[in-house]
Give the backbone structure.
Amino acid sequence: MYHDFIRPLLFKLDAEQAHRLILNALAISGRFNLFPRTNVRTKPCQLMGLNLPNPVGLAAGLDKNAEAIDGLAAFGFGFIEVGTLTPRPQDGNPKPRLFRLPEYDAIINRMGFNNYGIDAALRHIERAQYRGVLGINIGKNATTPIENAVDDYLIGLEKAYAYASYITINISSPNTKNLRSLQGSDELSRLLGYLKDKQQQLQSIHGKYVPLAVKIAPDLDEAQIADIAHVVRNTQIDGVIATNTTINKTALGTSPLAQEEGGLSGKPVREPSNIVLKQLVRELSGSVDVIGVGGIFSGEDAQEKIQLGAKAVQLYSGFIYRGPELVKECLNVLK
């Protein structure tokens, strides 16, 4: 149904308009339980100490403001991640900023952490019926100088802690100026050190331990991956999400959209993401859990990431192109 009827209609609309439309529909369907619920308990597993009903999650970016959690939960995801959320509301980058490339099964976005602010998202989470594993992805405001980025992440961590099953530190979006510089060894060590200290304080206050994950880019060389793994181990971060979107658009050939700024996701990022995933898993030697994301368009794609060492996977672009059937296919293959 999605492929034959819903997607053709959505793809006739502007990409961001279609995204808004589907989020509104999912929010309504979740409120009134309009969709039959897929059985989620297909392959229980553990991730960062959390018990998942299955290892197939929804990546951050689709439901930034946590508006449609209940609607999305009906599709069988083992966990859902919302965000990226910033301390203050922000509009993001100028439109147009979201582009589909159906011939490549790809998406380019330069949204720029557009969101209503973390306080608004937490109000949505409070109203949701969903009681499954929920990740909250946090970032910095565009107007915050990069040297003060830690302040924004500390605000996000403190506000999200009571509501999250785990919290993701997004330092890898290509659409916020200088953000990826935080992946450097010294910068990352400083940032994660502050966040781990705050995590310990919040654990005492709230009486629960909320794991921290860091989301990294696919545009990293072997030395950078090794450095990140070293910092993650030393700071005792609980998980790594590999990977975000890529700035390398050579896979798009002569497509006019190859000149658009922003991060590329979908099938073209699968191989670079898998290369990073494979080395990262090797560098971490099982000491830190890794979530594989990037280019999953089939159950076999999801299985490949698990075979490379990911404890769980997340869907985004593949879900846009294939809809809920992709979730079911991944669950069936990973049983």
In short: Residues 48 and 82 are 17 Å apart (CA to CA).
